[in-house]
Amino acid sequence: MNNSALWYRQFGEPVDVLSLKSAPLAPLEQGLVRVEMMAAPINPSDLIPITGAYRHRISPPLVAGYEGLGTIAEIPTGSTCPFGLGQRVLPLRANGTWQNFVDADPAWMVPVPDDIDDEIALRGYINPLAAWLMLDLWPVKDKNVVITAAGSSCAGLLMQWALAQGAASVCGIYRSPSRKAGITALGADAIDMASEATLTNAAGKADLVFDAVGGDLARHLLAHMPAGSILVSYGLLSGQLFALPENAQARIQRFHIRDRLETVSAQKWQGWFTNLWPLLREATLPPIAVFDLADWKDAITYFNQPGRLEKPVLQF
To answer: Where are the domains of the chain?
Structure first.
């Protein structure tokens, strides 16, 4: 049996350096379980490492992809795996998920409850866990919250869950006009990134800003945020670094999900998802656009379209 996988053997633009290769499946290593992949989303966190942004900690050749949904296909004889053949799981913290089969440690696999749809389960890791952990670290009850890149999946969850946790107000900053209706539908106030006066006003009232953009937008918000406020930097979609402006009264605190994974036990890891599934049952997520693995270039091209309203997903 062969395995098709999207590899990158050097850093660069994903459409240029990724390649789909097929090779015979290697024997399953002791202690691992083989998962046949069903689908995997395309997130910024999948594409940014391919560009070389994290070359200080990863080195090609690597299979791309950090999350996705599959079913248990093979369990070694004598294994203590708690899952059964055919069971739906998230094969996380293993080799890349953009391939037909993933061999993973069952301790870090996450079982999917029977009532969770595939469309929810396949994106049940990166964005939900990041949003949930940030709201745990920086509670929002009775606070005025501003969220940048508000059309993104993670920001959408931050807005919904911040309101549910009792935030006094939630504002979502958008760049593409097509995002405005979706932001207001979630109950947040939508702010056009191009409206400097409105940005300044929102920043002046903010207790917390969750920022995934960086660059000029982060600098502008920081320059107008009040004393005691915090900007949580969890992404750099602009590709531009930033620092605290002179005379700024706010503080910058940084969040990267990787930092939380380095010390978490397998038991606590499973507990995180026990908390997440009930939230995801009630959450509003963007619709998906499904692409066959062979059409991966089309999927990434679609991902890069400004103002897109659907999450691109690779189907295996």
So the answer is: 2-123+285-315, 126-258
The CATH fold of domain 126-258: Rossmann fold (3.40.50)
pLDDT at 160 over 90: yes
* Max Cα distance, the chain (Å): 65
Q: Does the predicted TM-score (pTM) go above 0.85? A: yes
Alpha-carbon dihedral sign for residues 158, 89, 57, 299:
negative
C-alpha span between 231 and 160 (Å, rounded): 19
185: number of Cβ within 10 Å: 11
The CATH class of 2-123+285-315 is alpha beta
Rounded to the nearest 10°, the torsion over CA 197, 203, 204, 207 is: 160
Per residue in 122-154, pLDDT tens?
999 999 999 999 999 999 999 999 999 999 999
What CA–CA distance (Å, rounded) separates 136 from 313? 28
Nearest-angstrom CA–CA distance, 183 and 8: 35
